[in-house]
Write a structure and sequence with these properties.
The protein is α/β, with parallel strands linked by helices. It is built from nine helices and 20 strands.
Length: about 400
């Protein structure tokens, strides 16, 4: 395997400058571990993709801190990761919305001598290794403390990110966007919240996508926190997404609406989508692979409109495929399963986007079907099957165009 080094820093103070990537990364728990290496301590973390990180030490008690934007710790455990006498304890989890932290309690004073992340060029997976070596207590105390890093603070405050380069012929990257979250619970009925149900469904869809071996999923959120609509597109773009699927389950005060429906942008919305993007996003966060810094709105809008000539029809074909996939899996469909509307979360010009209204919480039947993993299984199967069919069709279409 060929790995591309994207960071290699050595700080006695233990502070690693932030790397300019932003996405949700899943920890490969089977490969990752914290281990002794002679007199040194090594932290080996294998991630599904690169993310920003920093490393530093703190005193009283002595500990190593790794901050990320951001890591999904699903499946990880202290017992599975910690295999070192030089580390006395381990904990990890969310630090705040969009950020994760790992803390390694140190048995003895140690200093960071190396911290670097490399990327496997064919798969886009990342490997972070942090090495620590013994020092005396005075030296440890002198160098301990969170670093003052203006670059890291600026990254923490902004919602844009540099795109992670995609490997040619790599797996299809699917951004799964569980609607709402945090201060925005979405629809609520009978003690159930749309945000919670869509998160559960989103995680199940992402896991099923990753099991295919030919697609890779990224989540715009993996816990109950709020993500602005513009940031959801930014996260997808940063992960190199080929397609964006937003999951929702509305509720109506009146009427007997039920079943799934799939939305794409209306013609009216398409005509103004590029203008809205230009108004609300930084110039470096409009089109994957293009830095439009210094360009005026007119140039940016024209380029985005050109991109939509391809991604717009692709999104329409994806929506049609999802209708068929869900129906074939036995999912209850709305009487009008294909719809169009002005939906801000579908404004991105550089990847196909759809919104799946998987059901209505105001429907007793839909609500029951959304309430357990067992009854959500047909929804997961239908979505994944549709994505695979659509991806194959798009690949065949592209091959014909090249001939």
């Amino acid at each position: 395997m060929i790995w591309r080094l994207i960071a290699c820093v050595v700080f006695w103070a233990g502070a690693a400058t932030a790397q300019d990537f932003s996405a949700l990364a899943r920890l490969d728990v089977a490969k990752s571990q914290i281990r002794d290496n002679g007199t040194d301590l090594l932290v080996d973390l294998y991630l599904s993709q690169p993310v920003p990180y920093r490393v530093f030490t703190l005193d009283e008690p002595r500990r190593l801190v790794l901050d990320f934007r951001e890591v999904d710790w699903t499946g990880a455990s202290r017992e599975g990761l910690l295999n070192a006498d030089k580390a006395s304890d381990l904990r990890f989890g969310p630090l705040r919305p969009g950020w994760s932290r790992m803390v390694v309690d140190l048995a003895d004073p140690m200093a960071v001598t190396q911290a670097g992340m490399s990327v496997q060029t064919q798969t886009g997976t990342a490997f972070l290794q942090v090495a620590l070596t013994p020092v005396d207590a005075a030296r440890f105390a002198e160098n301990a403390g969170a670093p003052v890093d203006e670059g890291w603070e600026a990254l923490a405050e902004r919602e844009t990110a540099t795109e992670v380069p995609k490997a040619e012929n790599g797996p299809l990257v699917v951004a799964i966007d569980p609607g709402h979250g945090g201060i925005d619970p979405g629809a609520e009925r009978a003690g159930l919240r749309e945000a919670d149900l869509m998160l559960a469904l989103g995680i199940e869809v992402a896991e099923a996508i990753n099991r295919t071996g030919v697609m890779r999923a990224v989540l715009t959120r993996d816990a109950d926190f709020f993500v602005p609509l513009e940031a959801r597109m930014t996260l997808a773009r940063a992960a190199g997404a080929d397609v964006f699927v937003s999951l929702h389950a509305d509720a109506l005060e009146e009427g007997g609406a039920q079943g799934a429906s799939i939305y794409t942008l209306s013609q009216e919305a398409l005509e103004t989508a590029s203008e809205r993007m230009a108004e609300r996003h930084e110039r470096g966060d409009l089109l994957a692979g293009l830095d439009l810094q210094g360009q005026d709105d007119r140039v940016a809008t024209v380029l985005m409109d050109l991109a939509r000539l391809e991604t717009g029809p692709a999104g329409e074909r994806l929506a049609d495929a999802i209708v068929i996939g869900l129906r074939d899996s036995g999912v209850r469909m709305n009487s009008k399963p294909r719809r169009k509307d002005k939906l801000a979360v579908l404004n991105a010009p550089d990847f196909a986007s759809v919104l799946v209204e998987i059901g209505f919480l105001s429907s007793d039947t839909d609500r029951a079907n959304l309430s357990s993993a067992t009854t959500r299984a047909p929804m997961v199967a239908g979505l994944v099957a549709a994505l695979r069919v659509w991806a194959d069709d798009e690949a065949a279409r592209a091959s014909l165009l090249r001939q």
